[in-house]
From TrEMBL:
The keyword Membrane applies. This is ABC transporter permease subunit. It comes from Candidatus Lucifugimonas marina. GO terms for molecular function: ABC-type transporter activity. One of its GO terms (cellular component) is plasma membrane. Coiled coil: none annotated. Pfam families: ABC2_membrane_4. PANTHER family: INTEGRAL MEMBRANE PROTEIN-RELATED (PTHR37305), MEMBRANE PROTEIN (PTHR37305:SF1).
């Protein structure tokens, strides 16, 4: 791995992360996945005309496809790879032996993952909601904000997972489909520990005309929980990088 001239800095690690996570095939697959809800929104508008989306569209396209599958899968594929190249190539020492604090390595890596995945996912959420809700700004803002929060939370989780194990994709898939998809959907008490539920709560609370429901947590509770989860996994990633054995 080549370190940028002038020494390792936060900026150089961030640029390195962007370059590593922007492979042609990874971006192509991401583009195809994030295009699916947009296509569904266009299809809905062509079929239904000016009628606002009903609960079936919200459950299928927004809650199910976008929040339940596409966002976690894309962030898993990108964020878990933030350190994988260095770990697999045994070049992580080039980063960890540099005389800079570990947080100055983890934070730009996380920001790189957020930049790459967020550029596609947040844009997809914005376009889908803009088309489906005929440009209703409150609905568009609610869906886009929920997607952005979901990307941030999943990214912090999966960057840490990628540092913990070389099987991050496998464990991540189990988490997405078993915990988020099955248990959190069937057991109401588990939803407090569901990242997907946090993002959906933000969406529902930001636009109480279209999305409001009593099943979701309060705004204050979910905001505090989301910030706490993000900070915890960021701190765990920094701690892991400090303590892991680097070949």
């Amino acid at each position: 791995m080549r370190i940028f001239g002038g020494g390792l800095t936060v900026g150089s690690v961030y640029k390195l992360a962007l370059r590593q996570l922007s492979g042609r095939w990874r971006l192509l697959i991401t583009l195809l996945l994030t295009a699916l809800p947009v296509i569904m929104g266009i299809t809905w508008r062509l079929i239904e005309g000016d009628r606002f989306p009903d609960n079936d569209f919200q459950d299928l396209a927004l809650n199910g496809m976008l929040a339940g599958v596409i966002i976690p899968l894309v962030t898993l594929a990108i964020s878990s790879a933030a350190f994988s190249n260095e770990i697999e190539d045994r070049t992580l020492a080039n980063l960890t032996l540099s005389p800079i604090p570990r947080w100055k390595i983890v934070v730009p890596k996380l920001l790189g993952a957020l930049t790459v995945s967020g550029a596609f996912l947040v844009t997809s959420a914005f376009i889908t909601s803009y088309i489906a809700f005929s440009g209703d700004l409150d609905a568009v803002l609610a869906v886009t904000a929920g997607a952005a929060i979901s990307v941030a939370l999943y990214s912090s989780l999966f960057v840490w997972t990628g540092l913990m194990t070389t099987r991050a994709i496998g464990y991540g898939l189990l988490y997405i489909f078993l915990w988020e998809g099955l248990f959190a959907g069937l057991v109401s008490g588990v939803r407090f520990l569901s990242l997907r539920h946090y993002s959906l709560t933000v969406m529902h609370r930001l636009d109480d005309r279209l999305f409001s429901t009593s099943e979701f947590l309060s705004t204050g509770v979910v905001t505090g929980a989301a910030v706490t989860v993000f900070v915890i996994f960021l701190a765990l990633s920094i701690r892991r990088l400090r303590r892991m054995d680097v070949p």
